[in-house]
Here is the input.
Amino acid sequence: MANPFQEQLLKAGLVSKQKVKDTKTQKRRDRKAKVDDGSEALKQEIAAKKQAQIDKDKQLNEQRFAEASEKGLVRGLVTEFKKFAITAPKDAEIKFNFTFENKIYSIYVDDKMQSELLNGHLGIVRHEEQSYLVPHKLAERINLLVPAWIGYLWTQEDNTQVVEEDDPYADYVIPDDLMW
Here is the structure.
């Protein structure tokens, strides 16, 4: 035993081993439960802890609700762009390159789809290692909710050309559909 006073009481026969164990157990329980000794500071501390736990639980519930509703919207978006995805013809020969997460991906399209991509009528969505051609309005909605899925989305800024004043090649226009 760690307490020499308890050892002396046991040797003298004034207490039993069971009584010592019961006393230790009760002390441990009192320490754990912080038995109310009537002090105002302890009551305030307990009330503050309860309020903090209530606030934390409320915030966690709100966060879970927001995630669930977002998942519902995201799940709806996935079904929607899979439903409205435009399939490229099997005999498409034009390779359309786009960047997604710093990697270059390709999708084969025909002339009409290439011009629609370049003119802003179609967009490319990349989800679960697959690329989908979708209408531009749907691609814009996906860009608002989950911008990480957008592989290619035509915007007005993409089409503006910056011309330097002393550019020796200013007279030569580069076509949009130039394939390297």
About this structure: The radius of gyration is 35 Å.
